[in-house]
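Postdoc handover notes: sequence design on the structure in folder B. Input tokens:
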């Protein structure tokens, strides 16, 4: 399969991930939604299942990274060619953007019925519960470290014969995403994926959303660079230990 074809599946898989992931945020937060106030457990479960769906779609063809931090970690660990990194990351970012646009179209009436601009922003991207950029960076980096390190560990021959979220099977990664969300998600909303945050944040900035606020670009660098740092450190730790 060509690199372009693999990138297309990364795009589709990430789009579905964000459609379902941001979708549960919208269902939980927006006024007059039947899912309003479903709670944190609903959100973390749905994000796990969202990853599962993206992996089922893209896994057989691209390996279903669906996350630039995962792609970077795999490249550093030697499990993925550096020459393919740029195409994967661009596809993931575009998938995140388009998935968020679809969520807005789907819930447009509910966005219009919700006056709070912070709630609307929170559908698209993450923000810290307590702003403290140093600790927020650490939280995102640690969560992504755990994500990438466990994925790589699952890919050892003792667990499975090959590395890649799709090749591993969707279910272990689904459980991992749920565990990270439930245990480590309360501080920053656990972006742990630049494509999950930056693409949808760009969609929020561009879309003509009623009564919206700014897109909080002051914080936006943290859910981009902290996951990349966490993923890179996880890869270095993995190759040092295994």
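Designed sequence:
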């Amino acid at each position: 399969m060509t690199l372009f074809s693999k990138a297309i599946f990364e795009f589709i898989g990430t789009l579905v991930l964000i459609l379902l992931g941001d979708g549960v945020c919208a269902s939980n937060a927006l006024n007059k939604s039947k899912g309003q106030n479903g709670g944190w457990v609903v959100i973390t479960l749905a994000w796990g299942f969202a990853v599962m769906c993206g992996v089922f779609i893209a896994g057989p063809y691209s390996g279903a990274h669906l996350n630039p931090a995962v792609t970077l970690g795999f490249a550093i660990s030697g499990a993925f060619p550096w020459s393919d990194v740029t195409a994967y990351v661009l596809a993931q970012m575009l998938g995140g953007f388009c998935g968020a646009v679809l969520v807005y179209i789907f819930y447009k009436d509910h966005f219009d019925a919700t006056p709070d601009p912070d709630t609307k922003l929170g559908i698209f991207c993450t923000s810290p519960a307590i702003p403290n950029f140093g600790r927020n960076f650490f939280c995102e980096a640690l969560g992504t470290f755990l994500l990438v390190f466990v994925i790589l560990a699952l890919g050892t021959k003792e667990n499975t014969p090959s590395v890649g979220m799709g090749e591993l099977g969707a279910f272990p990664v689904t459980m991992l995403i749920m565990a990270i969300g439930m245990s480590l998600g309360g501080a920053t909303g656990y972006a742990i994926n630049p494509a999950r945050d930056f693409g949808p944040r760009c969609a929020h900035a561009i879309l003509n959303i009623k009564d919206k606020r700014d897109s909080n670009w002051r914080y936006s660098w943290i859910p981009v660079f902290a996951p990349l740092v966490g993923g890179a450190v996880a890869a270095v730790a993995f190759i040092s230990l295994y």
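Context for whoever picks this up: The domain at 3-241 is CATH 1.20.1080.10 (Glycerol uptake facilitator protein). Don't rerun without checking with the PI first.
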